[in-house]
Amino acid sequence: MLLELQEISLSYGRIQALHEISLTVDQGEIVALIGANGAGKSTTMRAVSGLRPVSHGKIIFDGQDITKLRADLRVVRGVSQSPEGRGIFPGMTVRDNLEMGAYTRRNRVEINKDLDRAFSLFPRLKERERQMGGTMSGGEQQMLAVGRALMSRPKLLLLDEPSMGLAPMLIQQIFDIIVEINQQGTTILLVEQNAQQALSRAHRAYVLETGRIVKSGTGSELLSDPSVKDAYLGVA
Amino acid sequence: MSSTAATPGKNGRRLNGNLRGWFARQPVWVRIVGVLAVIALAYLLPYTAEIPLIGPQIVTEGIDWPSALFNMSYYVLLALGLNVVVGYAGLLDLGYVGFFAVGAYTVALLTSPDSRLGTEWPWLAAVPFAIAVAMISGLILGWPTLRLRGDYLAIVTLGFAEIIRIVAQSTETLRGDRGFTDIPHPPGQQTDGSALFGVRDATPYYWLGLTVIILVVLGVRNLDRSRVGRSWLAIREDEEAAEIMGVRTIKYKLWAFAIGACIGGLGGVMFAGQQGFMNSGTFVLQFSILVLAGVVMGGSGNIPGAILGGALISYIPDRLRGIQDPIFHTDLFGFRFAIFGAVIILIMIFRPQGLIPSRRRAMELKDREKEAAPS
């Protein structure tokens, strides 16, 4: 087991956003978290990456308790997040954004290898190497955010809404790449509104509703689950 | 590496950008000679009045020109320091004058015969202490407050500057309005045996200030290009993103604050050494706002911008001194804030990123706009 959340709760002020969430992610898996707006998907991600402290429960990563570990040290341990929406550095070039992803690393040769890998996954980024991040389209920024998250060579990649605001064709493309990254050996925890895509690509998935996990199963199980279909897949 | 690829379609839009781009493409020796020439000219500034025709238009009338230059030099120093905090790390500090005051008061306490400490050190001996105390005060203020963001940080720093001023105003040790007299000048003698840093001619002070500025610029530039600078940049552009890249944000923000405080303290040290007298009235809030206006006006986040902005906030009011307006026949100096405000408004309308804008900054501003009003 690479990641285990043990009954974590998290509050924003007096509003409790997560209620005793437990989930596991095994080595080599793609696990999806689906749910409506405000269900707590992004909050769960932020708890794992360390951007928000949890009020109860434990986060176990790679056999160690990281509940109280600072966010920057979690990156060193192997957790990397591609944040929701505009999480790139607008005034840095594409290249510098990617270099920022390798902030915790020193080995130049290895970093260059991973740069090449990011460029081969996203040839578009290579074309735009010297362009400022902020001048790129939404889809390109999304690719950049994913590519940048890979630059720390994570054991666990957290992807927060990788398809947000993308055209349907690009959504296909970015999910193809996510599967490819996974096949190259990176474990992925994925948050998505696009439940159809997420469930058909993920090994397992959890359904979140108002800060609680209400269902879990393999991707295909949930795809054919009537209540999931009803609520998240937009088919009767 | 072609620099044209970086800004497709944007070349030639600004003369300024072109000049900088052109300069960056020159061989190293040309750039070094260029920079040395600018530095040499800066050292010659006290003799501006000798230039036929234009010279007399530039120099100030109501205040002697070397003194005006010295004033500019410590404002530039403050702008450079505040630029580290606001421009590099993106922390809105409205109480920067507080560090200036800490530097100046430390010098006064250690050197002035009015001080209770009774140490009466020479100016030079007090310098390292004053810088250290300013830096420590930066750390003390920063440690609890840098967890705050944006507006909250601005309010807390504002409070800090006021606390310093009010403490200075009302404690016996800091002597309030009476202030400290006879703060010694920097050491050194002229060939005829008279003091190099006297009261009659401010030129040596200006040269000293300029030298300190050059050293500070070198230090800040090196920091900016190091890992520290990269961390600041990331924090300024997106603090959360920086954190999940592995940047220990609180540490680098504290660094920025401490370095900014250090430079601000240094400004205070210079000021105390030249004036010889200071009291609590010197350190009003206006001062912080003025320096911040200078940084923003010059172009936040880049060194030439901070230098230009810092120089202008001091030069404009000094230049207005001693000029009578044609209607009321009063000194234009009295209208300095009105004129100054108008100038700032004009600059903000026509060059919102400052006189010498940083391209990065322009991108960040655009990005924030999108965030504020997503399409």
UniProtKB/TrEMBL annotation, chain A:
<dbReference type="InterPro" id="IPR052156">
    <property type="entry name" value="BCAA_Transport_ATP-bd_LivF"/>
</dbReference>
<keyword id="KW-0813">Transport</keyword>
<dbReference type="Pfam" id="PF00005">
    <property type="entry name" value="ABC_tran"/>
</dbReference>
<dbReference type="InterPro" id="IPR017871">
    <property type="entry name" value="ABC_transporter-like_CS"/>
</dbReference>
<keyword id="KW-0067">ATP-binding</keyword>
<dbReference type="InterPro" id="IPR027417">
    <property type="entry name" value="P-loop_NTPase"/>
</dbReference>
<keyword id="KW-0029">Amino-acid transport</keyword>
<comment type="similarity">
    <text>Belongs to the ABC transporter superfamily.</text>
</comment>
<dbReference type="GO" id="GO:0016887">
    <property type="term" value="F:ATP hydrolysis activity"/>
</dbReference>
<dbReference type="GO" id="GO:0015658">
    <property type="term" value="F:branched-chain amino acid transmembrane transporter activity"/>
</dbReference>
<dbReference type="InterPro" id="IPR003439">
    <property type="entry name" value="ABC_transporter-like_ATP-bd"/>
</dbReference>
<protein>
    <submittedName>
        <fullName>ABC transporter ATP-binding protein</fullName>
    </submittedName>
</protein>
<feature type="domain" description="ABC transporter">
    <location>
        <begin position="3"/>
        <end position="235"/>
    </location>
</feature>
<dbReference type="InterPro" id="IPR030660">
    <property type="entry name" value="ABC_branched_ATPase_LivF/BraG"/>
</dbReference>
<dbReference type="InterPro" id="IPR003593">
    <property type="entry name" value="AAA+_ATPase"/>
</dbReference>
<dbReference type="GO" id="GO:0015807">
    <property type="term" value="P:L-amino acid transport"/>
</dbReference>
<keyword id="KW-0547">Nucleotide-binding</keyword>
<dbReference type="GO" id="GO:0005524">
    <property type="term" value="F:ATP binding"/>
</dbReference>
Automatic annotation (TrEMBL), chain B:
<feature type="transmembrane region" description="Helical">
    <location>
        <begin position="205"/>
        <end position="223"/>
    </location>
</feature>
<keyword id="KW-1133">Transmembrane helix</keyword>
<dbReference type="GO" id="GO:0015658">
    <property type="term" value="F:branched-chain amino acid transmembrane transporter activity"/>
</dbReference>
<keyword id="KW-0812">Transmembrane</keyword>
<keyword id="KW-0472">Membrane</keyword>
<feature type="transmembrane region" description="Helical">
    <location>
        <begin position="123"/>
        <end position="146"/>
    </location>
</feature>
<dbReference type="InterPro" id="IPR001851">
    <property type="entry name" value="ABC_transp_permease"/>
</dbReference>
<dbReference type="InterPro" id="IPR043428">
    <property type="entry name" value="LivM-like"/>
</dbReference>
<feature type="transmembrane region" description="Helical">
    <location>
        <begin position="254"/>
        <end position="272"/>
    </location>
</feature>
<feature type="transmembrane region" description="Helical">
    <location>
        <begin position="68"/>
        <end position="88"/>
    </location>
</feature>
<dbReference type="Pfam" id="PF02653">
    <property type="entry name" value="BPD_transp_2"/>
</dbReference>
<feature type="transmembrane region" description="Helical">
    <location>
        <begin position="152"/>
        <end position="168"/>
    </location>
</feature>
<feature type="transmembrane region" description="Helical">
    <location>
        <begin position="333"/>
        <end position="351"/>
    </location>
</feature>
<keyword id="KW-1003">Cell membrane</keyword>
<feature type="transmembrane region" description="Helical">
    <location>
        <begin position="94"/>
        <end position="111"/>
    </location>
</feature>
<protein>
    <submittedName>
        <fullName>Branched-chain amino acid ABC transporter permease</fullName>
    </submittedName>
</protein>
<feature type="transmembrane region" description="Helical">
    <location>
        <begin position="28"/>
        <end position="47"/>
    </location>
</feature>
<feature type="transmembrane region" description="Helical">
    <location>
        <begin position="284"/>
        <end position="313"/>
    </location>
</feature>
<dbReference type="GO" id="GO:0005886">
    <property type="term" value="C:plasma membrane"/>
</dbReference>
